[in-house]
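Hello everyone,

My group is preparing for a crystallization screen and wants a predicted model to guide construct design. The compound we'll soak is zinc ion. Before spending weeks at the bench, it would help to have a computed complex in hand. I've included the protein sequence and the ligand's SMILES below. Output in structure-token form would be ideal because that's what our pipeline reads.
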Amino acid sequence: MTELPARRLLLVHAHPDDESINNGATMAKYAAEGAHVTLVTCTLGEEGEVIPADLAHLAPDREDLLGPHRIGELAAAMKELGVTDHRFLGGPGRYRDSGMMGAEQNERPGSFWSADLDEAAAHLVAVVREIRPQVLVTYDPDGGYGHPDHIQAHRVAQRAAELAAEPAFRRDLGEPHTIEKIYWNRVPRTVVEDRFRRLAETLDATPFTVAAVVADVPGVTDDERITTEIDGRPYVDRKAAAMRAHATQVDVTADGTVFALSNDLAQPLFDIEYYELVRGEPGSAREKDLFEGVNA
Ligand SMILES: [Zn+2]
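Reply:
Good plan to model first. Here are the tokens for the complex, ready for your pipeline.
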């Protein structure tokens, strides 16, 4: 194995853009500090809705070329964050975006939702055993907001963490490795409520006319479940730039404080990113670093 930095962080996401929206500041921070940051994206996001009118022809019901286009958007976003190790689960196009819950695309052959769990997890086990991360970041069991690909990304990440540590599992995929800490992406409810209150006061200064509501934000949870917060303020410009790179999916204001998805509903762009530790011991009562207490 080639020599890797002492601190190694793995993030597992469903579609290109999820990483920048959820963890953009965290990824930029650890990359800047010299940690090895690995992103595994499970689908190409082929079923996304396209915001710019001049790119509407890429849509799945037209040319169906959104997937390859989003490979390029993700690469541009990773450049903004300084992340060089980004991969697609099983290779680009191995698993297709399953669309929203209940859509007929859920059951289509090749959809991520219809994937065999252990087979999908084995692709990730190979990455875990190669990179040997101390920290894994993924979604909560609901995928943050119930999207099938987000739920499946959670299941695959958790299953891969289990299988990667299992000595009897697929030694052809590398030496067993136990991930010390697993985090789920979260946002504390009071913070979200406060940011939406402030957004309501400044909405006139944005290009958007209607704001989203708290329930539109993935991963919102009771404040007491939050174990960890990453102060991403020094990196929030990079996060905003990475989100802008996903131009078919995200519209970010010039000042980088507000964004909207294809529904055109304004949302606050978080400069502090929050996590719930679900495996491993917290390094302190309110962690400020995902690697706190890790034996690097
Ligand atoms: Zn997504």
